[in-house]
Amino acid sequence: MFVKLQKKLMNVYLFADLFRMKIHLRDYFTEGVDLQQKRLHRLVRKAYQIPFYRERFDKAGVRPEDIVTGDDLAKLPVLTKDELREWMASEIEKPKYRDYIVDTTSGSTGKPLSIMMSPREKAYMKANWLRVMLVAGYNPFTGKTMSRINAHDENVGSRDTFLQRLGILRRAYLDQYAPEEEMIRQINAYRPDFLYLNKSELMRLVLYCKRTGTRVWHPRFYDPISEKVTENDRRLFKEVLGPGLIDAYGSAETGSCLLRLRGKKNYIIHYDSFVVNVIDDEGNLADEGRLVITPLYKTDLPLINYQIGDSAVCSEKNGLRYVKDIKGRLNDYFYYENGEVTSFFEVTPVIAHCSDILQIRFIEETYDLIHVQIVRDENAKMSREEIETYVSSNLNKIFKKPFEFEFEWLDAIPPDPNGKLRMIVSKVKPGA
Q: What separation, in Å, do the N-terminal and C-terminal C-alpha atoms of the chain show?
């Protein structure tokens, strides 16, 4: 009964939460850290009452009172996607969760994952996304938002709310499955102040504009979500869509926890709502390593030390942590017969230093052959043959053995069935 009431009050909760959130950057760091500790203490106390987490605490020899700051979460084990998937599957059919909201991830790093949250928590997640827009400079009273169609959003296709009829929080949905010409027509007709799509969807649009010379409306702010944005991507987005690029990092499971504003090099952490740590392979806090995220607002079915699947580089200044770089969703490795591997991060510099390459994907067909799908800038300085030589020769300097390369030149690389784009796809099994 109480959860049903939460559903009816979701918009009330959303605006109440948004009103209390830190919008100005100075408040992020002065008041946000204090709020982080208070909410962290509440989270671990509640989590310890849940059998799943009590077992994890006890195995680690940790009591709730041992967790004083966000750094102390490193005393607990990470929560993997497989562990979360198994736990959610064991809980989802229980009657007490009948009215909870269930979101499903795209499965970009494996099988799709169903994640449950109460309407109260979902309202906070939505308020946090609105906070991202406000921090970027969006004005909810005058601005217009355009986003991809989200299968989880129950309001798609419905009539405007009362507030939207008053001109507040206006929004439209862009059909991301339509041909590029139709997507551009929709954007140019609506002229959004804020546009966000999955990176692969936005890249498809941008590559079409660059290839055909078609002009598209420049939103004041735009965000390619759900995937790693490389420096080459940034250059191309800014060339076609203008300077308003922001990078809000998060996932369907956690919500947006990091924000890189236009013109900035570092990501700021939403301290009042998340703990974001970087740990090494031994689970210790580190400047570079695995990214683990703890949403502080999610207390019914918590995500403590959730290993999202990315790695990151961070630094500290005046006692505050900043994320300098996110290395993106884990791709496959290049595998060798002897069991050794080469990661995407090792070959990234070769691609990053060639602005003539707009998109690239490597498909390891055998232990000796790599199929390369590639998109070339039409104004490139190098010819196709020169780019092929550049890629094959420089990569073979990095690989542990030479590969043969075959190249497939495309106008745009098609995304994977889940709508995202892995940079390395290996069809061979790891060696001995």
A: 56
